[in-house]
Write a structure and sequence with these properties.
Strand order of the largest sheet: 4-3-2-6-5-1-11-12
Oligomer: single chain
CATH architecture: 4-Layer Sandwich
Distance between the termini: 30 Å
Structural class: alpha+beta
CATH superfamily: (Glycosyl)asparaginase
CATH topology: Glutamine Phosphoribosylpyrophosphate, subunit 1, domain 1
Bound molecules: aspartic acid
Radius of gyration: 17 Å
């Protein structure tokens, strides 16, 4: 069975005139590095869950994306990370929301999946679990970059709450995610974000909500979303794509296109795979940083 991996680095109003060739090239290098990390595991016959985690780790570690260090800030100029992983074989998930000290939130989400009886841990509870698990911890201020402070102050001045990419400036990055089908036909999804610019402290987006921004089930598909989280929560985007396949009998591409088309314009997009290794990456926004590798080759694109 051929493996497949798809990743995203956020959707939004990505303006061609605001993205310098240098930044575009730098983002492309990181997207390729994330594909390399995930593909190395899949090509060796490894599990999709490890592959999506490895790909998201690369993206979290890059300050070019809205996850890990350099994540967007709340209106109080603080960082609150959300992350989730889901294993399609076990139909089981782990997630954290509002963490402030975990260097790589995706590892904490994986720890919730593997070592707790819970699905979603929030705030100090998530930080404590990660610390007890021996994951790398940092001071909350470590995540705050001068570019992000400037970005959120601009948003506060303009009374704007929005996607990172919607700021239309060259300091916009994006939420990250990955989905994979391994050579045994098992699916997995992972998503990580700092949320939306100028969100209220305590706001939870779609990323850590299973069935909204993150979903995986071997019988249907694995989905990682990016966009206006509130819309993805209301529409239950990941699970709805899965339901259209499971109950409605649609194929992956038709199900994804249908659910994205139901969203308001500029809502965002998804990357998704099915157990046959098919990939879909539809979006309703102006652009979505994305990349994919499968039997049909490798692509990295924005628009
Ligand atoms: N979906 C994320 C959220 O609402 C934001 C994004 O995708 O950029 O938290």
């Amino acid at each position: 069975m051929p493996y497949a991996l798809a990743i995203h680095g956020g959707a939004g109003l990505i303006r061609r005139d605001a993205l310098t060739p240098e930044r575009e090239a730098a983002c492309s290098v990181v997207l390729h590095a994330a594909l390399d990390a995930g593909e190395a595991i899949l090509a060796a016959g490894g599990p999709s869950l490890e592959a999506v985690q490895a790909a998201v780790l690369v993206l979290e570690d890059s300050p070019l994306f809205n996850a890990g260090r350099g994540a967007v800030l709340t209106g109080a100029e603080t960082v609150e990370h959300d992350a989730a992983v889901m294993c399609g074989r076990r139909r089981a998930a782990g997630a954290v929301t509002g963490s402030t000290r975990i260097r790589n939130p995706i590892l904490a989400a994986r720890h919730v999946l593997e070592h707790t009886r819970h699905v979603l841990l929030c705030g100090p509870g998530a930080d404590t679990l990660a610390s007890e698990a021996g994951l790398a911890m940092v001071e909350p201020s470590w995540f705050v970059t001068p570019e992000r402070v400037e970005q959120v102050r601009r948003a506060v001045r303009e009374d704007r709450f929005g996607l990172d990419h919607d700021s239309g400036a060259d300091d916009a990055y994006g939420t990250v995610g990955a989905v994979a089908c391994d050579s045994a036909g098992h699916l997995a999804a992972a998503t990580s974000t700092g949320g939306m610019v100028n969100q209220r402290p305590g706001r939870v987006g779609d990323t850590p909500l299973i069935g909204a921004g993150t979903w995986a089930w071997d019988a249907t598909c694995a989905v990682s979303g990016t966009g206006h989280g509130e819309l993805f929560v209301h529409r239950h985007v990941g699970a709805r794509i899965s339901d259209w396949m499971d109950i409605g009998g649609l194929d992956l591409t038709t199900a994804c296109d249908r659910v994205i088309a139901e969203l308001p314009a500029e809502a965002g997009g998804v990357v998704a795979v099915d157990r046959h290794g098919n990939i879909a990456m539809p979006f309703s926004s102006a652009g979505m940083f994305r990349g994919a590798v499968s039997a049909s080759g490798r692509t990295v694109a924005i628009w």
